[in-house]
Amino acid sequence: MTTPPLTIHSWPQAILHLDADAFFASCEQAIHPELKGRPVITGKERGIVAAASYEAKAKGVKRGMRLFEVKKVCPDAVIMPSDYETYSLFSVRMFEILRRFSPDVEEYSIDEAFVDLTGLRRSFHGPYGMIAEQMQTAVETELGITVSVGVSLSKVLAKIGSKHNKPHGLTLIPGRDIHIFLCRLPVEKLWGIGPNTAAFLRKFRIDTALEFAKKDERFIQEHLSKPYHEIWHELNGRSVYPVVTEAKGSYQSISKTRTFTPPSNDKTFIYAQLARNLENACLKARRYNLGATRLMVFLRTQEFRDYGVEIKVSRPTSYPLDLFEPLQRGFDQLFDPRSSYRQTGVVLAGLMPMASVQYTLFDDSTKIEKMSKVYKAVDRLSEKFGKYTVHHAASLPTKLQARHEGDRGDVPERMTELLRGENRRQRLGVPLLHIKV
DNA sequence: TCTGGGGTCCTAGGACCC
DNA sequence: TCTGGGGTCCTAGGACCC
């Protein structure tokens, strides 16, 4: 087997990584100044901590912690639902600010960016550290949130830098200082090395990032796969991961999952959860004009065991009506009335642009066109009144159950309301509609 | 982290073809 | 019929990330 050659820059790169501090919580504090200095937590809608402000972290609140525990360690915490739409607006503005400094900005996640600073010292009349500081200050003053920044020769090293000093840190890792940052860093803290690989490396007495970086290439090639070889280069200051500037335009897969408590073995209820997953996944696929050729269905039992099946679809589609039959088939295969389930999930895969889909001789094109019209109307209603305003009768039992449990259902998006100057479903009193299949 | 939700990429191995 | 070598495509499953 031949390993494909790695592209390594012959010129030293200057890569910046920026990571917003406790992003969701910081956004809330920026919107509500009265919350500054107070422990703020988001994640109310799921019952677990999605983000915690530094005031909350200081009291021992951690990501993923359950909210009843939070109330114990931090009784004065302000707990709010995560409002992704609003955070996305902050995110968009953050990337805009960064692009004023360099066009080479990678939107790595909602709160993280990589920026290629290589060659910018001349136009800024100063060292990279100064440029980084200006970027940091611009984001902080314009958005009212703090960010941590790392600058080094590669993405992996820049990430180590941004994590080194949080919050509001600025860390430069020049080539001659790399070893200082790596010698105390456990391998599992490295970007791309998880618990599994860390355990494997420990067998070879590799415990720190420096020990990993110092291994000779022979060892890496013999024992590890491509991603780890790349990390190894990056740790040694040789940039192999490019800063990807293109905006993400498409998806390889779209998934929707739902966990419910308590676990259930009610067949109707569980199928309804899947139907709802499917509708939401299809809605997203239609928004991106994608059709799925494969449908994956899975159930997670009370004991955290996953069972799944994959079903091929004859023609790429993003219409639930096309997929309910395969969904039902998959579900019947998986469902065991003796088990209790805590989660359902659906993945649309093998996605392709719908524009390129050709009908075959056997497709009923009139029916397909009718379906297309129906879903266009559904999508318009969803956009106007909120997701899931209109849905298939098959997923109705999810709502009935939600009511019994006193669940609020979908949390309305506050910022969107403010921006549009209108409330959504509640105030308009939009009734539930069910499309009769 | 006794466990939420949404993604990506890589590799090995089988099927199939010449 | 057996044998050999080599290529491509596809899929399952692992591992990791925010």
Descriptive account of the structure:
With 437 residues, the protein is α+β, with helices and mostly antiparallel strands. The protein has a domain at 253-400: DNA polymerase, Y-family, little finger domain (Dna Ligase, domain 1). It has helices at 23-31, 54-58, 67-73, 84-99, 121-124, 128-143, 155-164, 178-182, 195-202, 209-214, 217-223, 226-235, 267-287, 320-334, 365-385, 396-404, 414-420, 425-428, and strands spanning 15-20, 40-42, 51-52, 78-80, 105-109, 112-116, 147-152, 170-172, 253-264, 290-301, 306-317, 341-349, 352-353, 390-392, 433-435. The strands form four sheets. Strands 5-6-1-7-8 form a five-stranded mixed β-sheet. Strands 9, 10, 11, 12 and 13 form a five-stranded antiparallel β-sheet that branches. It has a three-stranded mixed β-sheet with strand order 3-2-4. A hairpin with an 8-residue loop joins strand 2 and strand 3. Helix 4 (84-99) packs antiparallel against helix 6 (128-143), helix 13 (267-287) runs antiparallel to helix 14 (320-334) and helix 13 packs across helix 16. The structure holds a DNA duplex (18 and 18 nucleotides).
